[in-house]
Write a structure and sequence with these properties.
444 residues, 19 helices, single chain, mainly alpha, Growth Hormone, Chain: A, 2 strands
C-alpha cells in the first residue's frame, strides 16, 4: 500500500499514544534496572555468588521474556494491543513486588521469570501501534521518544536509589504495615512494582489506531512473520548483531556497574548512593540528548532520500560504544572510568534509538508485530540473557570476584569486535533489502 493513501491518526492523538507507551516503558525499565543497585544487599541477605546473581539478572528475566515475545508478537498482529499491554504491565508489576518477598534462589529465579513474561508484550505492541500512527519518514522521532524511556528510567531509578540509600543508610530492617519487617532491598522492589498497577488500569481505557497496510487482524496469519524472516535470514541475522552487542553491553552495565565501581574504586567514594546520583546526572546529560538528536537526524536525513540513515547512525554508535566500554573498566581512577562510560553512553544511545526504526524500514506492516518480536527474541537471548551471566561467570571462575572490572572489560570485547568486523557484509545486505522493499512499495 502506498504511504500517501494511508489515513494516519491526527498528530495530537498519535503523540498522546506515544506518551502513554513511553510512560509504561519507563516503569518496565525501572523494574529491570533496579536489581543492579541491590546486588550487594541481596548477596549479603541470601548468600548468593556472582555467578548466581548473573543467572538472576540474565536467564531468569530474559529466557521467558524472549520466548514469550514470539506468541505475544503474533497476538499483537491479531488482537487489541492496548489490552495486551495492560495485561503485561499488571503481570510484571505484581512479579516485581513478589521478587522482594522471595528468600531462596529458586523462588527469586521464578519471580524474575514472571517479570520477563509481563515485559515481553511491551515493545512488540508499542512499535506496532507507532508504526500504524506515523508514516515511515516520521517514525524516527516517536520511536526515539519511546526508546528514550530506557534512559529516563535509568535517571529516575538512579536518583531514587541514591535517595533511598541515604535515608536507609545503617538501617538493617524496615517495618512496613502488612509485610512486617523487611530489608531495605525488599522495600525498594515493593515500591518500584506497585505503581505499575495504576498504569495497567490506564491502558484499558485507551483507544488504539486502526491497522495500516494488510496488517488487519482478520487477514494476518501466524506464519507470515516466520516466512518473512526465513526468506531474509542472512540479512536479519547480520542486522541483529549490531543491536545484540548494544543490548549485551547495556545489560551488563545496568546490572553490574554499581557493584563494579564499589569494588574497584572504593565504597567510600564510589558506593551505590554516590554512583547512582552521578549515573542519573550523566544519563540525563548525555543519553537523553543523544536519543532525540539521533531521532531528529534520522528523520531529516530520511526525508532527503537516505532511507538507510537509521542504520548508518547505528554503525557510528557502535564504533563509539565498543572501544569505550572495553577501556572504561581498566582506567586507574573512578572518575576516568566514569568519563569513558559517559562517552560510551552516547554510542549506546545512538544504537538504541535507531534500531527498530532501521528494522521497520525493511518490514511490511502485516508482520511488524511478529518481526519486532523475533528481533527482541534474538537480541534478548544472545545479548540480554548471556551477557550478565557471562560477567558473573568470568568474575567468579576466571578473574576472581575482586577483579570484577576485568570481567566487565572482557564482555564488550567478546561481543563487539566480531560485530565490527562483520559490518561491511551487514551493511551490504541491509542496503539490498531496503532497495527491494522500496521498489515493492513504489509499485503499489
Amino acid at each position: 500500500m502506498n504511504e500517501a493513501k494511508i489515513d494516519y491518526p491526527k498528530p495530537t492523538y498519535a503523540w498522546s499514544l506515544v506518551g502513554f507507551l513511553t510512560l509504561a516503558y519507563i516503569f518496565s525499565m525501572m523494574d529491570r534496572y533496579i536489581l543492579g543497585y541491590l546486588i550487594k544487599d541481596i548477596k549479603a541477605d541470601l548468600l548468593f555468588t556472582d555467578s548466581q546473581v548473573g543467572l538472576l539478572t540474565g536467564p531468569a528475566f530474559t529466557l521467558l521474556y524472549a520466548l514469550c515475545a514470539i506468541p505475544f508478537g503474533m497476538m499483537v498482529d491479531r488482537k487489541k494491543r492496548v489490552w495486551i499491554i495492560a495485561f503485561g504491565i499488571a503481570v510484571w508489576s505484581v512479579s516485581t513486588m513478589a521478587t522482594g518477598l522471595m528468600t531462596t534462589f529458586v523462588l527469586f529465579f521464578l519471580a524474575r521469570m514472571m517479570v520477563g513474561v509481563g515485559e515481553a508484550v511491551m515493545s512488540p505492541a508499542a512499535f506496532s501501534i507507532i508504526g500504524d500512527s506515523f508514516p515511515k519518514e516520521r517514525r524516527a522521532k516517536p520511536i526515539a521518544t519511546y526508546s528514550a524511556a530506557l534512559f529516563i528510567a535509568s535517571t529516575i531509578t538512579s536518583f531514587m536509589i541514591s535517595i533511598i540509600f541515604k535515608v536507609t543508610d545503617g538501617a538493617e530492617k524496615v517495618m512496613l504495615p502488612v509485610f512486617g519487617e523487611l530489608s531495605s532491598w525488599q522495600v525498594v522492589l515493593l515500591a518500584v512494582g506497585a505503581p505499575g498497577l495504576l498504569v495497567a488500569l490506564l491502558f484499558f481505557f485507551l483507544k488504539e489506531p486502526p491497522r495500516t497496510e494488510s496488517s488487519q487482524s482478520d487477514t494476518a496469519k501466524l506464519s507470515d512473520g516466520a516466512r518473512f524472516a526465513a526468506k531474509r535470514s542472512a540479512t536479519l541475522l547480520c542486522f541483529v548483531t549490531i543491536f545484540t552487542t548494544m543490548v549485551a553491553i547495556a545489560y551488563a552495565q545496568f546490572n553490574w556497574l554499581p557493584e563494579m565501581f564499589s569494588r574497584t574504586y572504593g565504597e567510600e567514594e564510589w558506593g551505590r548512593s554516590a554512583y547512582a546520583a552521578r549515573n542519573g546526572a550523566a544519563t540525563f546529560l548525555f543519553a537523553l540528548p543523544t536519543y532525540f538528536i539521533a531521532g531528529f537526524v534520522s528523520d531529516a536525513w530520511s526525508k532527503k532520500g537516505r532511507t538507510d540513515a537509521p542504520f548508518i547512525l547505528a554503525m557510528v554508535g557502535l564504533f563509539i560504544m565498543v572501544p569505550a566500554t572495553i577501556i572504561a573498566p581498566l582506567m586507574p581512577t573512578g572518575w576516568t572510568a566514569f568519563g569513558m562510560l559517559c562517552i560510551a553512553t552516547v554510542g549506546v544511545g545512538m544504537v538504541s534509538c535507531v534500531g527498530v526504526t532501521a528494522l521497520l524500514q525493511i518490514v511490511p506492516g502485516h508482520v511488524r508485530g511478529s518481526i519486532v518480536a523475533y528481533y527482541y527474541l534474538a537480541i534478548t537471548l544472545l545479548g540480554g540473557m548471556v551477557s550478565p551471566m557471562l560477567v558473573g561467570w568470568l568474575s567468579t571462575h576466571v578473574f576472581g570476584e575482586d577483579k570484577l572490572n576485568l570481567a566487565m572489560s572482557a564482555q564488550p570485547a567478546i561481543y563487539g569486535i566480531p560485530t565490527i568486523l562483520l559490518l561491511p557484509v551487514t551493511y551490504r545486505l541491509y542496503r539490498k533489502e531496503l532497495a527491494a522493499r522500496e521498489g515493492l512499495e513504489n509499485k503499489l
